[in-house]
Specification:
The protein is an alpha/beta fold. The protein folds into two domains: about 60 residues, no CATH class; about 160 residues, Nucleotidyltransferase, domain 5. Helix content is about 40%, strand content about 15%. It has eleven helices and seven strands. Strands 1, 2, 3, 4, 5, 6 and 7 form a seven-stranded mixed beta sheet that branches.
């Protein structure tokens, strides 16, 4: 069996209306090029090492970089998630993603601004913040430097949450402003209280057990080598890679 990845036509048909319309000269076959892009991201290859079956590696990279900066892959994830999200329950969490030296070199600004890379105990990292639906499928993504608090991601994602009954999160998200923000959106928090909290807030432990699904989601994303290790200097391009992987794994 071939080790190459090929996106089948049925799945391509679900998203091709979101691709930019070609101008002038007809572009290379979308299915072949997109399959090559996915193969590179899954296996952590350099673009020049892409198998010849996908066509010239420069075509793959140029299409990838251009569409990523245009937000095409983020838009694909957003549309598919909006059509199929099971949002009775939401889950929020964050995970660190290792940064390769090729991404963290060349004068990133202090604090990870610009590149969204920061130093943690584990080295140079970025942090992926995510909200999933009840099945653990990602519906909202946010990228920050690795040394940024989970609260920053929660604050950035709060305003865009879809309608839901519950929000599951670990005790790292136990903050009054976050609980109040959820209740303003008629979402009941299911968050264990921090051990130093003076006013103890009980939570439904039975409902909370489902939170393992978001951790499983992170694990599946990190099986793709260009997600587990960040090689892209541009944070928009890196987040686009994560959005594309999330689309292929969970929504197509």
């Amino acid at each position: 069996m071939s080790h190459l990845f090929w996106l089948d036509q049925e799945r391509l048909n679900r998203i091709k209306h979101l691709f930019p319309k070609p101008r002038g000269v007809a572009r290379s076959d979308d299915r072949k090029v997109l399959s090559g892009i996915i193969h590179v991201i899954r296996n952590g290859l350099r673009w020049r090492d892409a198998p010849a079956e996908y066509g010239p590696h420069k075509t793959l990279y140029n299409r990838w970089a251009r569409w990523a900066r245009m937000g095409i892959f983020a838009n694909i994830l957003a549309e598919l998630a909006s059509e199929g999200a099971a949002t009775g329950t939401l889950m929020i969490d964050a995970t660190h993603l290792k940064t390769h030296r090729t991404a963290s070199s060349m004068g990133a600004q202090k604090g990870g601004r610009g590149r969204l890379i920061g130093r943690t105990k584990g080295g140079m990292n970025s942090k992926l913040h995510a909200v999933t639906d009840a099945l653990g499928r990602p519906i909202r993504l946010f990228l920050s430097a690795g040394n940024v608090s989970d609260y920053i991601g929660a604050r950035a994602l709060l305003a865009s949450l879809p309608d839901a009954k519950w929000m599951l999160a670990d005790r790292g998200y136990d903050a009054d402003w976050f609980r109040d923000g959820l209740k303003e959106r008629n979402i009941e928090p299911r968050i264990p209280f921090r051990r130093n909290r003076k006013d103890i807030i009980p939570h439904d432990a039975t409902t909370y057990r489902a939170r393992h699904k978001i951790e499983n989601m992170f694990g599946r994303l990190k099986d793709w080598r260009r997600v587990a290790t960040r090689y892209d200097r541009c944070p928009v391009v890196f987040l686009s890679a994560i959005a594309l992987v999330a689309t292929v794994l969970f929504w197509l």
